[in-house]
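User: I'm curious whether this sequence folds into something compact or stays loose and floppy. Could you predict its structure so I can see for myself?
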Amino acid sequence: MKKTLLIITLLYLGILQAQDKKQSYSFSLDQAISHALTNNRTAINAGKDIDIAKQKKRETTAMGLPQINGAITYQNNFKLQTSLLPAEIFGGPAGEFAEVTFGTKHNGGGSLSLNQLIFDGSYIVALQASKTYLKFYENYKVKTDTDVKEMIINSYGNVLLANENELILQKNKTILEKTLFDTDQTYKNGLIEEENVEQLKITLATINSNINYVTRLKDISLKMLKINLGLDIDDELVLTDKLDVLAQSNLDLTIKSTEFDPSGNINYLMSQNFVDQRNLELKLQKSKALPTLAAGVNFGYNSFGSTFNFFNSNQRYFNYSNLGVSLNVPIFSSFARSARTQQAKIALEKAKTDLEDAEQKLKLQYQNAKSDYEYSVEQYKSSKENLKLAERIEGKQQIKFKEGLSSSFNLTEAQRQLYSSQQSYLQTMVDVINKKAALEKVIGNK
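Assistant: Here's the prediction. I'll summarize afterward.
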């Protein structure tokens, strides 16, 4: 019994601990976008790419600054190399050789070197390239943030759409259940045919099926939004904006008259980055025809001994030092440098062509996005009016059906038309929001 109570207690504590880990959030659309730009995992990694590029720039800069290196060496010659020398050097007979060994068993030393690049054309280009490299990842971060913003708008709208769908379906279900009950009672009193009841049951079954589907879709959409926000899928999330309010706020007629400038689009800026990179690659190939100049200073000590006495105060150390300057002048490469330079020129021309292509495609993309947005606004206004008409038609059919002036078939058709109009209206609201976001993305609005 005690063991069972202990297990139950541990399970209960585990559940409480798991609940404590869950966090609750409440976001409007603007708050969700702001949160995602900081916490979305893709946006976080894009920021880290900028940090890497900054460190890469520091690394490139350091290549032209003084380089200091130190070394400590020790060598144990446990078997010295034997050499042969003419024996007559030591007073021996001519024609014979004496075996001698040179060196000491223990050799040690320490050195310090200073190297400085004085001139290298490729280093100057590398410094410029590191700035372009950093600029590329800064632009990539902007592109990522733009994509994340659009993704959040779409995800947020999908959740609101699912919520509104569920509410409308539940409302329709309530109304239909009452109509079905009244119709069933009328049938039991023998005043109408059973077909009227069966027709309404079919419609109710369809609504129940749609409710189950929308409920599952709402859960999936909400979890997708949490992932895009950088949250845990088990966290609690409440959306404070309403779909109709967001749709109204996105009815911006001034945006349709905005003058489009492709240079404000992040994809254009990134294409320009590639042109800059190819231009620097051309400069790099040209710089390799220039001489390079470097200097170095070395200073060190060596010590030798038959026994290991390097830490003895009486051990002798012999110092050395030198200063060197090296000049490397490219003279002839059998036209290899020329070939590499020509390759870089061609790559630059391709990048410029790609930039022109990107500009033209962006202009077309703007026209498409603008047309899609204008169409979504028109559809929104049209579906709003259609919904009012469908509601009036369905209401009239309800009255006629109850008074026996209309058949269940006519009522069902009116209901289907109403349900379709409701779904269309909800979808057009989401379309207005999404198409506006897509248009702003092309224009370059942040």
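Summary: The mean pLDDT is 89. The CA atoms of residues 191 and 404 lie 9 Å apart.
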